[in-house]
Specification:
The complex is a heterodimer of chains A (about 400) and B (about 400). Chain A has about 400 residues and is mainly alpha-helical. Helices cover about 75% and strands about 0% of the residues of chain A. Chain A has helices at about 1-10, 25-30, 35-65, 70, 75-80, 85-110, 110-130, 135-155, 160-180, 195-220, 225-240, 245-260, 265-290, 295-305, 310-325, 325-340, 350-360, 370-395. Helices cover about 65% and strands about 5% of the residues of chain B. A 4-stranded antiparallel beta sheet of chain B has the order 1-2-3-8. The chains are: A mainly alpha (about 400), B alpha+beta (about 400).
Amino acid sequence: MANDELTTKQVSIPETAPPKTSIGVLGWLKENLFSSWINTILTVVFGTIVYLIVVNTIEWIFFKAEWYVISANFKLLMVGQYPVEELFRVWIAFTLISLLMGLSWGIWKGTMGHLTIAMTAIYIIVASLPFVLIETRIWLLVNIALIIATYFLGKRLTKFKKYILIGWFLMFPVTMILLSGFGVFDRVGTNLWGGFLLTLLIAIVAIVFSFPLGVLLALGRRSKLPVVKWFCVAYIELIRGVPLITILFVAQLMLPMFLGEGVNIDNVIRAMVGFTLFSAAYLAENIRGGLQSIPRGQFEAAEALGLNATFKTVFIILPQSLRAVIPAMVGQFIGIFKDTSLVAIVGLTDLLGMGKNIISNPEFLGTQMEVFLFVALVFLVFCNMMSYASRRLEGALGVGTR
Amino acid sequence: MNKHSSAKKTPFWRDKRVIPILLQVIFAILVVLAGVFFFTNALGSMKQIGLVFGYDFLSKMAQFDIGDKLIEFTSTDTYGKAFIVGILNTIKVAFIGIILATILGFIVGISRLSNNWLAKTVATFYVEIFRNTPLLVQIFIWFYAVFLSLPVIENSINAFGLFFFSNRGTAIPWFDLTSSSLIWLILFLIGIVLSFVVWRVRLKQQVESGKRKFPLYWATATIIISLGITWLITSEYPLLLSVPEIAPRGFIGGYTIGPGFGALLVALVMYTASFIAEIVRGGIMAVSKGQVEAAKALGLKNSTILRLVILPQAIRIIIPPLTSQYLNLIKNSSLAAAVAYQELVGVGITVLSQTGKSIEVISIIILVYLSMSLLTSLLMNIFNKYTQLVER
């Protein structure tokens, strides 16, 4: 009865807004920062720490830090002792990469687009630095224009995917010929390579050469031939059991001894050999994980089709297992990229080694923090870009999701 | 008979039983040939410099001193002893580093899943920054830009009169042993064992009788009583606090952490902790949501849920990747070579440059690291077995 009365009376309650403490800024604060007394304490403690760090960092960056050390040594940090009159070769290599990136952005979009945009952003930031030479700025602007132009071109060229891929594969030898000469240009010895260019080159060489070696080692480790299997197991476990720095020392000191008279290879190549041998062992373990994830049925089906061992591995097993471990491999590549900084210990002047040289120059006394923070920032930006790409790739490949 | 003859006809290079053996023989010959090639070359170039392969240099006098050392070492001791000092230094930094990195990593990993926005954001930034910067760069920042940029020893920064920060090292209060430290230690261990026994007995009684028997209070009381008895026996403090003081040539008292060791330890801990944090986060996220909800339905507190429901299950997922992080930390401690902290690789490089015995020195380094890696894996595997799910 009472119920009926209520409904028929049509009591109109004015619409009230939700309490101020549960919506808007206040609500968000209450839910995310002050929901319980423990949370409040946490917020206050973390807030104080963050405040102190941020205020001091900003004050240091804008008022105390002496950034002239970076502007004065920018060329050294980027390309080391590479002769100025030959720098155009580095720029041509970069321009070719920009061209390919722009085209790939137009064709594939997605992750490639994000990466290209990030690359363009880096170009723009470098170009807007006040101390950069006018030539550098022109090259950078040409690169940016080229990326944008090739993007629109790439949109129409979707049929040429294959050629772009071939272009990427050719990029490595072309870059090497451009940088070192190899008879086409004047020879620029690897002892002149330095700075970030050297960091990139060591990382790329290690990645390119360790990949096939890693595949072979992984296949060898799963081989049914005991001699091959135990050789691969011994190699992988030995390399993985010792620090990278030991392997770099082995490469620096013992490689010339092992190769004997007549073979004379310079420091940079030795470091590259060391990195390749090192990262092959780690890659092999990643790839082995992929090989193990292939169901037996795939092997049996391949055998039922009458494929021999080589065809079975190359056309059925490897493509599937490599696809499964792409994210893990990208993680490994990021690791290699970070590890290239170790060549500073064996006396090469990569980005970090160059930084170390600069702070030992009495002219730049007391600028350690500026130099090393700059080095850290460069690594941070590139590693973040790579891990972003790997995460996108993971999503696109659907690895880990069922 | 017929079958036999047809098998005979098959040439041996197409016989399925022969091919694998043949391939392996070829492979083995190639490997051996390469080995012989490398080895003869190495011996040849060693002969050229006038060196002979051998480990007898280990008993010769090392003509260098080591700054940080856990056992006595002077420049008149042997190379062999120098290596032992180096190994102990590696173990020291790895041991302390693993403990600190685990603690920091768990804190950051749990903070990343906290419902406090600020804690979550700070933890995320921490992980992203420290994981994506090379360890060596971080070590250099700590070494050159922080520890070596501190003021000289006379003007060292003083915190509460207990901690001193200078470019020659950081001095912290430390403990000096007294004559009765050993008795204290023995009796304290006995006290712990006793209190554990008491705790078990009371807990059993509580479970059987259903009445509250306060096992924890009883255990604590046992420890306190045992300590009291020790005090009566020895009438001396177990340890004496030694506060550092500034002296003209270094610190007196306390414990001085050299800049190399400090930079290496801080960098290793911060770097490894960022990886451990991600492992911990992954492990916790892998615990199924139903478990947490069930625990909440039982009315458990958040901290209790974390301690009794989430972590025991997450730990099973966490341990294998955690082991590889520990191994990485041990291997990464070799970067000390760059900051003049003389651990195994640092000593090895010095010995190598003095004696030129590269093959021998590097073989020692490799052997030590391999055995340390194997030992750590073994320990972690035992721990892993202990935490694994017991299935019926």
